[in-house]
């Protein structure tokens, strides 16, 4: 026979509820700590196109970036531009991996690898003969500084049109590499084809000097500075993500703004 | 005779405690990001009073050179931080608890009296409901701050795609400064909050875990009075 259940006294109720809630609270604290240790000690991703991040964090970075791309990315969303006078006279220089020293334009050709295997070799003079576009915008570094600067060059779109690379733009990605292949970025096609993406050969009123990617650099205002490769040597197209210097060091592959 | 008085709902307790590790991780990873270019300082008439942050601070927390790690954590935990705040606000709206939280037209005057009382300058604290006027203002402000962090965060995370948001925040640069100042605000809120909790005593702290308070019932009044010793 079951014992008849006695009504708990107030004291007992208080004790019982305190015990239960503190036990749950303790369990929650312990599992939070365990979860945190798990995440913090989770293995790094297998190095490939991206590397240097913990696996769960990389998944989160990729998913988050894709979420925002699908939700709001639109090539009609233009980067805010400023009056020319607001541009910095002296443009901040941060790093020159892959673009050390000088590379006079006469010793340089832009190599564009077509799907057919054909490689276009384009000189700076040929590029400068194409329609010139200028932009004054706020350049943003992933480190957190930003600077209004003025650049001039050829729209990436105009290069595609002029050299009839429409077939190539059906692929998902464009890769840019320095002539020595020490610095390289992968850009998703919608960002590359953004109307404000420039192949710049001029800052303010002078041709790019050594520190700023002489003779041609990428200015892609919808991406952080790390994607704005200096000294373009080769442009190629592919359907899978091309290798990317900073994505191999734990940064987000897209780094879009 | 002792009696149980229900005080904090399960959801309020849940979101409150979950927020503690979340905000800690957000601030920590935020500093990892900030370190990459620590340019903010408080300068008045050419004299710098505070530089965020001194070297010993970075050395203590082993922060230098971990920008990509900071970004990865920040962009994962921002989801939970946002969702947690969203659930809390949704709950207070549905349950009607917002009535006890939003300051009313007397709150700003009363909050001053609460402050004087807390500082032992004034003997009697103004009558209060579940929360006193100062608490109402603080707890509402912290929600607005959380909302501000999410908005300014989005404004600096996607300034091109959310350009209208960045514009609302006064531009990229100002949005970033606001985001930073809000973080300083959390830290100050946290410190004051802890001091207040210590002063309010164990039973008050316990109620935020167990949800109820133990009160001593005297002869049951027909109308429950809001007496001085029920103050939390």
UniProtKB/TrEMBL annotation, chain A:
Record bears the keyword Transmembrane helix: yes
InterPro entries named in the record: OxRdtase_Mopterin-bd_dom, OxRdtase_Mopterin-bd_sf
Superkingdom of origin: Bacteria
Keyword terms of this UniProt record: Membrane, Transmembrane, Transmembrane helix
Segments traversing the membrane: 20-39
One Pfam family linked to the record: Oxidored_molyb
Protein name: Molybdopterin-dependent oxidoreductase
Domain Oxidoreductase molybdopterin-binding, first and last residues per copy: 105-246
From TrEMBL, chain B:
PANTHER family: CYTOCHROME YDHU-RELATED (PTHR30485:SF1), NI/FE-HYDROGENASE 1 B-TYPE CYTOCHROME SUBUNIT (PTHR30485)
TM stretches of this protein: 20-37, 71-91, 137-157, 177-202
Membrane topology: Multi-pass membrane protein
Cytochrome b561 bacterial/Ni-hydrogenase domain boundaries: 8-210
InterPro entries referenced in this protein's UniProt entry, alphabetically: Cyt_b561_bac/Ni-Hgenase (IPR011577), Di-haem_cyt_TM (IPR016174), Hydrogenase_cytochrome (IPR051542)
Protein name stated in the entry: Cytochrome b/b6 domain-containing protein
Entry keyword set: Cell membrane, Membrane, Transmembrane, Transmembrane helix
């Amino acid at each position: 026979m079951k014992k008849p259940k006695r009504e708990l006294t107030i004291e007992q109720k208080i004790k019982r509820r305190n015990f239960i809630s503190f036990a749950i609270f303790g369990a929650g604290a312990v599992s939070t700590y365990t979860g945190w240790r798990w995440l913090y000690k989770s293995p790094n991703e297998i190095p490939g196109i991206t590397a240097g991040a913990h696996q769960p964090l990389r998944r989160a970075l990729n998913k988050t970036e894709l979420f925002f791309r699908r939700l709001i990315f639109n090539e009609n969303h233009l980067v805010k531009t400023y009056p020319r006078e607001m541009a910095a006279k002296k443009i901040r220089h941060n790093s020159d991996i892959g673009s050390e020293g000088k590379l006079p334009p006469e010793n340089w050709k832009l190599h564009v690898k077509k799907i057919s295997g054909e490689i276009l070799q384009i000189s700076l003079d040929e590029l400068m003969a194409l329609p010139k576009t200028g932009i004054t915008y706020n350049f943003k570094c992933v480190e957190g500084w930003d600077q209004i600067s003025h650049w001039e060059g050829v729209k990436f779109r105009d290069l595609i049109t002029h050299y009839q690379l429409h077939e190539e733009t059906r692929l998902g990605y464009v890769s840019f590499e320095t002539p020595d292949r020490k610095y390289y970025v992968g850009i998703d096609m919608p960002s590359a084809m953004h109307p404000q993406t420039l192949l710049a050969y001029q800052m303010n009123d002078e041709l790019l000097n050594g520190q700023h990617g002489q003779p041609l650099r990428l200015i892609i205002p919808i991406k952080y500075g790390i994607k704005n490769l200096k000294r373009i040597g080769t442009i190629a197209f592919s359907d899978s993500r091309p290798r990317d210097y900073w994505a191999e060091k734990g940064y987000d592959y897209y780094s879009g703004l | 005779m002792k009696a149980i008085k229900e005080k904090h709902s399960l959801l309020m307790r849940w979101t409150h405690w979950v927020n503690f590790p979340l905000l800690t991780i957000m601030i920590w990873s935020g500093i990892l990001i900030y370190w990459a270019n620590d340019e903010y300082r408080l300068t008045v008439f050419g004299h710098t009073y505070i530089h965020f942050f001194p070297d010993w601070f970075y050395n203590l927390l082993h922060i230098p050179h971990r920008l990509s790690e900071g970004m990865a954590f920040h962009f994962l935990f921002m989801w939970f931080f946002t969702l947690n705040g969203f659930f809390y606000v949704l709950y207070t709206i549905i349950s009607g608890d917002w009535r006890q939280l939003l300051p009313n037209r007397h709150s700003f005057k009363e909050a001053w009296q609460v402050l004087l009382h807390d500082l032992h300058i004034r003997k009697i604290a103004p009558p209060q409901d579940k929360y006193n006027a100062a608490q109402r203002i603080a707890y509402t402000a912290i929600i607005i701050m959380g909302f501000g962090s999410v908005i300014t965060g989005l404004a600096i995370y996607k300034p091109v795609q959310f350009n209208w948001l960045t514009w609302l925040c006064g531009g990229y640069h100002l949005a970033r400064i606001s985001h930073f100042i809000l973080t300083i605000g959390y830290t100050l809120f946290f410190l004051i909050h802890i001091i207040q909790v210590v002063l309010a005593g164990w039973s008050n702290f316990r109620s935020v875990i167990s949800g109820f308070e133990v009160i001593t019932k005297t002869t049951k009044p027909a109308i429950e009075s809001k007496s001085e010793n029920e103050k939390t």
